[in-house]
User: What shape does this take?
Amino acid sequence: MAEAAAPTAAQAGIAVGTCSWTDPALVRSGWYPPGRRDAEGRLRHYAEQFPVVEVDSSYYALPQLRNSERWTERTPPGFRFDVKAFSLLTGHPTPAAALPADLRSAYARARGRGGGRGGAPMDPALLDEVWRRFAAALRPLRETGRIGSVLLQFPPRFAPGAAARTALEDARKRAAEWPVSVEFRHPDWWSADHHRETEALLRDLDAAAVAVDTAQGLPTSMPPAAPVTARHAVVRFHGRSPSWGTGGKEDAYRHTYTDAELAEWLPRLRAMADRAERVHVLFNNCCADAAVRAAEAMRRLLDEGEDGGEGEGEDGGRGHPGRVPG
Assistant: This one.
């Protein structure tokens, strides 16, 4: 009897994609074919190549209902969007102009009292309203089964401690109706002293721990921890630039992954897929077409079933290319 073929990445529950489909550098790279370079054509073409994408523009401004409707119309059933939470919702510096006009006065008053600065609490009523509008705009994606998760990416100053735990619990309550993924940028969350506690906290919150690939050996390096703390799991590949955490966008994310670098993650990804219902693998090395090429390479390696290395057991793009949330 012939040996059964190894399952493809999709069959194994692993979906590979990128952290944007309209990043200006990608659009300029020529990856999109002629005739498919307008807003509709780009998304339709991307969705023919990959089953998942991250919406990054929602970090810079609240998403719009009409865009969610268009994204639903332009993608096939089964396609998934991971949506990054608006910057204000995760304690990042947020300019007043990024909020709807009718909320700016309340925001200015809150900032005048110190809210939102250096981790100071923001007005709960304002956060409730921003969360309400964020969720309402994504309703078409939810109703058509196209939401992968809402990504809560916290800033580097968000260190482990009682205040951070309270903020994380508060954010999870406000996002109770959504699957949630959490990415930390402070290395202590996954240090030997805090790893077990962090994993338990996210499991209690039913939030997926976002595993990351970044350059190692830097003060801002995040360890490649890959625990599974919810029914879904997410891995974000940021590249391995030595300017990670310090340089501008072009420097911090400039990296072309080799097959050997990607193969380091194959055992981890398969281990995650054994424990989670679905794993989203997203590439954020957003210079030219580097992210889509890395995603294609990762999918090929997964489908080949060869480890090749060792490891532990109307816009969805970047609204402000000069800023680097990642």
Notes: Residues 290-304 form the longest helix (15 residues). The two ends are 49 Å apart (CA to CA). The first strand starts at residue 14 and ends at 18. The chain has a mean pLDDT of 88.
